[in-house]
């Protein structure tokens, strides 16, 4: 099997894309010769076949990563040098922004402008942030034992890390995982989603061009049930980091525990509430709510998928939000105007439509949307949808839809709003819109969520931690917390004057 495939990309023409495995800075086919197909979500047609990594391939990637960790990376290289290489990688990604964004758009269905300005831009910023932290990992000096001894701590890299990333933000999730891991001194065995592996593979060539040593970044595309399971159970992988569904997160936790008890960080699903009080600016609140639910066509773990509106402004707000839904820039991914593209697959589209139907069957009201986009042709679009007058027993309220569907209900009091917001097994994010500063502070503290936005929604920053309460995950990404997740703390006791006699 060839490790590269020529693809015709809108606006760029024919590009030779890597579709093999990247192990020890070399492109190789899967030892089994097996492949899997990727599909263009805007057309439903096959895009390319990609090598499917099996156990022998993962073993080879782990061995390359372990060798690099012991010899050319890890504690064998100064933090400042790791940072310089990450900065070089960020520069190369910025240089190739047009090309990478075009492939990200083609593979995932997101608008090319959004991919370029959002996904590529934020990935560059993330890599640069962690490049700056690479030589700023500090321990403590514990000097409180008189002249007996001195103790200090070392924050050392965990080692070889398996990383399993999702299809909704393929490039950005790569940066979120690789940036802190490499800055901390870890080496990586990366499994991109089988639906969107192409930009993760493209970045391997950029990493090699940047001068990152062989074995530091290895990429083994494959299915979750096969390649992902192998990574999760591998006895020489020290940590696994995963972003995706709660169900898969549970399976990874079990696999990690049943193998070598490897460390685990999980960023899982959400059913994030957004509270709108009658003091809020409704036009502004509708803009942020729209960003929260219809950005990336609703395929976002922290999407503002449940809105609770104070009863005195409930009907008015739904009118304002309906106008935003109907103004969404739906279109083909290659169109610069598009900010709302297709869902990732036919299966995801059909799942979203089934949720909408369940809402109707249980008595909810469709304010707008609720069906396939009439111009979908063979693609996987679902219109921006508002489902109103829901109650807590409904499936559309309790379960993550992961599509462009928002459910709405009303509340009377602040206490009721908080109760409704927290009535979920998830706890990834939440939002509150109010012009009462004291109320804002009270509610921010009371919401069970890892991120709370006040009078805005959905904006993240590389320097601010992100992660979930309850079943939305374990650990944090981004910020200094993100790099801590790739280190382990060693306490060193250095004797100065203590002696003992034996036997005691």
From TrEMBL:
Q: Does the keyword Oxidoreductase apply?
A: yes
Q: Gene3D superfamilies, alphabetically?
A: Aldehyde Dehydrogenase, Chain A, domain 1, Aldehyde Dehydrogenase, Chain A, domain 2
Q: Name the CDD domains on file.
A: ALDH_F1-2_Ald2-like (cd07091)
Question: What UniProt keywords are attached to this protein's entry?
Answer: Oxidoreductase
One GO molecular-function entry: aldehyde dehydrogenase [NAD(P)+] activity
Specify one Pfam family: Aldedh
Per the record, the coiled-coil ranges are: none
Which intervals hold domain Aldehyde dehydrogenase? 27-492
- UniProt-annotated catalytic positions: 267
| Keyword Oxidoreductase set for record | yes
Family statement: Belongs to the aldehyde dehydrogenase family.
Q: What is this protein called?
A: Aldehyde dehydrogenase domain-containing protein
Q: Which organism is it from?
A: Cutaneotrichosporon cavernicola
